[in-house]
User: Fold this.
Amino acid sequence: MSDQMQFIVEKLHREPFRKNYNLITFDSLEPLQLLQLLSDVLGEIDPKHTIDIREELPEQTAKRMLGLLGILKYKPPGGISDLSAFRQGLVTGSKPVIHPILHWLLQRTNELKKRAYLARFLVKQEVPAEFLQDDTVTDINNQYEELIERFKNLHKEREQLKTSGLSTAEIRKDISAMEEEKDQLRKRVERLKKKVETVPNHQQMLEIARKLRLEKERKESLAQQKKEQKYQLFHAKQRLQRAQLQLKEMRQAVADSKPESLMKKLEEEINFNSYLVTEKNPREFESKKTSIYFLEKVAAEPAMTQSDLNALKMKVHEVNIQINQLIEKRMMNYEPTDSKLLMYEQQAAIISQKKAAKAEELQAAKEEISRWERQMLQKTKQVQELEGSEVLKVDEFKHYVSKLRSKNTICKKKQAELAEITVECEVLQRTEELLKQRHDALQQELKSMEEKKGISGYSYTQEELERVSAIKSEVDEMKGLTLDNMSQMVKKLNALVAEKKASLAPVIKELRQLRQSYQELTQEHDEKKIQYESCAAGLESDRSELEQAVKGLLEECDQEESNYHYVNCMKRNLEVQLQRAKDEMKACLSPDPRERQKTIREQHTRRILEQENLGKKLREKQKAVKESHEANMKQMKMWQDFEQLMECKKKCFLKQQNQTATDEVIQEEGKDRLVL
Assistant:
């Protein structure tokens, strides 16, 4: 308690209260002063409560404070039985009531300010049901609820923006950096314009550059369209392959099965689908709907603190204790009929769970089959892309196997030849190694002989000289041939150049004229191309408009045709019903009683009479049962008493027999002892 008071006094010393209290002065406050202090704290949280309590009645003060504390979700200490004492203590300004409230409010002032601010807009004003019958009041109430939802969304967006980390200083900094970058780009553009203005025909070049940029953008868009169309084509091919595979499977199923098996299969599929539609999917939908409702309810509530969570945990614990107590009470009041019913309920629940599990397994198996089918189609597509052909059929595969066997025999022959060549190569390699060893041995002997004679290195030097002289002679011969060839080639080239110049002079003149005409034709071609593209674009737009118009007319035609068929079917149904009505009237007006008995009215009349007679008999039977009920119950009670009496006699008789048998045994034992 002293820690609580110390905390309250410290908080009241600070802004915005500035109360010069210590523990003694705070503890010596009068009830009216305590209530005024509580009102000031509540006024700091919600400015509407900044009121002098001397200007209002005590009941109004208590009502106002209780309303705000309820909005702030304050939970007084103690159970439900202490609520009246809490209200009385709040009216009288009791310290055990006011001090915990002040401690709770001063602990979470900022959070409570936010909650009070939201409560001003989110606490709905309840409208009586009799006023909601007016359309104007209903519309205004709906607008009011829509505004509340809009306020919730805006507040959530504001909180998200506050927590996103974007501050005004950072935004201003980014804006200033962007403006600086914009100025730099403007200056750079001006410099480039000045440079370009000195270039001749710069306007034409700029126009060409603009056209080039537009064409590049158009090229990129066309490439994107091409990519999208390829993607759509790929998916369309996949759908076509799946449809073809399903058609093939269905044809095989139709060819290999009988009508009875097909009907059985269809009935199983219909039963499974009806189970999904009527039981499984609605149950899942309801569970999802309830979970969404609870999540929306939780999201609509303001943020909860740790104390609120602890209070909820305590409440859950109490409810669990109550549930356990009720279960124990039910077990104490256990009856056999309830156990049988419970057993049947458990069996039904187990069967429903098994049914749901099997349905989920079946659904998963179907999804697995579809996944494997998609994977098979993808693998088939990959094989077609790699091999360039479809997957082999049975005959083609047999032909491929025979071809592979012939190639296998050829491969075995080649492998045998390769083995022979490998053996021969190994023999030659061994021969080469022996010759190299012999050559090395001869070289060693030659070196040793040269060292003995005092002319070491003579053979190596002689070999080098011979090699160098051979290379020199070859180079000299090549130089001479090269010089002769080059001089002859230069003469031939000069003569050929002179001939070509003489022959190309008129061609060059014609080429200049052709270049000029080519430039003119190129310019004319560009102009015609632009005209063609504009005309093609106009025609393309006209064609698309016509296609849309034709599509709309075709849809309208289909709609009218379906309407015609629908009206025709309705007409036929009405004609059939009219014919049946005519036949009924004819049978009713017929003088023949047999014909009149066949009418639907006569049949229903007979059935009504039969049911009335049956109901009369059942009522008479019920009356007889009611009359004999008391006598039968008395007779049953007498039989029960008689059965108990006979059971008691049976027990007594058995007990008497046991007693006589034991007496006889005791007497026999006594006689035996006397004899001994």
The domain at 1-123 is CATH 1.10.418.70 (Actin-binding Protein, T-fimbrin; domain 1). DSSP finds 18 helices and no strands in the chain.
